[in-house]
Amino acid sequence: IWCSAAMQESNWSPHNWILHSGQSCNDMVDKFYKPQPQKEQKQSHSPQLARRKLGTVADHWDSNGCNGGLLAKTIQTVTEGEGGSYYTWLSTDFPILSDTKLGAGKLLLQPLGLALPHYADSAKIGYVTDGTGLVGILLSGSSEERVLKLKKGDMLPVPLGAISWWFNDGNTDFSLVFLGDTSKAHNPGNFTYFFLTGAIGILNGFSSEFLVTAFGLSEEETTKITTSQPGAVIVKLDDQQQMPEPNKNGNEHMVYNTEIARPDVDVKNGGQLLVVSPKEFDLLGEVGLSGAVVKLEKNAMYAPEYSSSSAFQVNYIVKGSGRVQIVGFNGQNVLNETVKSGDLFVVPRFFVVSVIAGEEGMDWFSIFTMQKPVFSQLAGNTSAWKALSPKVVQAALNITPELEERFRSKMSMNATFFPPSN
User: What pLDDT score was predicted for residue 14?
Assistant: First the structure.
C-alpha cells in the first residue's frame, strides 16, 4: 500500500505491503460445491452420506484453513510514533476479509496527535471507542469542510473518496475503529489511503513544473510546500499550533452517538442492542452500510441468529470477553472461541452466530453489508421454532408431542438476550 521511500524515512512495518492472497474460501466453495443431479435413492440416516450428497462444503471450509479464519486476534502495526499509531487487520493474515470484501483498521491518537489529511478507496464507518477528538471531513463534491467534535460512542460514516483529518485535542488517548466495504478497493480486504501531504503525500509525486502551474506559486514556494512536512500518516503538533473550532451544530446529520440513543432491544440483566440504518441516520446511505452496538451483560447469552437478508457481518470487541460460536454449512461448528477486547470476527452470510459473555460482560461494534439488515432468531419469543406449527416441529425433530410441547413452552419470553439462569 505504501511507497518504499516512506518506509525508509519513517517507522514503517513491512506488513504494510499487501501481498495478493491465494485462493479464497468463496473460490473453494465455487470449485467444490457443484451439486450434480442425483438418481432417486433410498432414504439414508447417515449424516456422513448426507454431507457427501450436499457437496461437503464444510469439509473444504475446514481443510483449506478457513475454520478459525473467522476470528482475528492479531493486528499489524502500520505506523507508530509520538503522535499515535495506526493498525490494520491484513487480508493476508485474515483471508476472510478479502473473501467478504470487508476491511478493518484502528487509529489511536495521543494528545496533539494529527492524522494528516487523506482519502481512501473504501467506504467505512468510524466508531469512537475511547477519548475525544476532532475530525475534519470534506465530502466528495463538496467545497465545505465540516469540523466535528467526537466523543466515545460516536459513529461517523466516511464515504468513498471523502477527505478527512483526525486530531486529538484532549488530554487522554483518542481511539477509533474503522470497519468498511472494500469491494471497490485496489486490494479487496484492505483499506488503501492516499495522503495529501507528508513523506508519502501526493504532492511529492508531481514535478515542480506541474506544481508551479497548478498552484501559481514560485518554484521555491512549491519546494517548501512539498518538503516542510517530513512526517508520514500521523504527526505530533506543537502545543502552540492552532486548530479549527468545531462547526456550530456541525454534528447534526454527520455523527450518531450510540451512547445516548434509545436501544432497539433492552433486556434486564441480558443486554442492549442498537441497530443504526439509513432510516435512523441518513449519512449511512452514502456508505451503503448499517451498524450496530451490542452490550451483553455478564454471563448472558446473545441468542442464535442469522442474517436472512444475506448480509456479511464484521464485529469488533470493544470491551470485555465472551465465547462465540458460529455454525455454517451442513451443521458444522466453524468457530468456537473465547474472544476479548481488541479481537475481530466475521460472520458469513446465513451462518448462525451466538455469544455468551464472560464475567465482565462484552460490548461489540458491528457493521453489515446491507442498508436494511434483517435477522432471524432460532431461540426466544421470536424464534422460528415457536412460529412453526407443533406437528411440523414434532415431525422435523422426530420427538414426542409431550417433548415438543415442553420445547415450545420453554422458549424464553425474551428476545435477542437471555439473562443468566442463576
Answer: 34
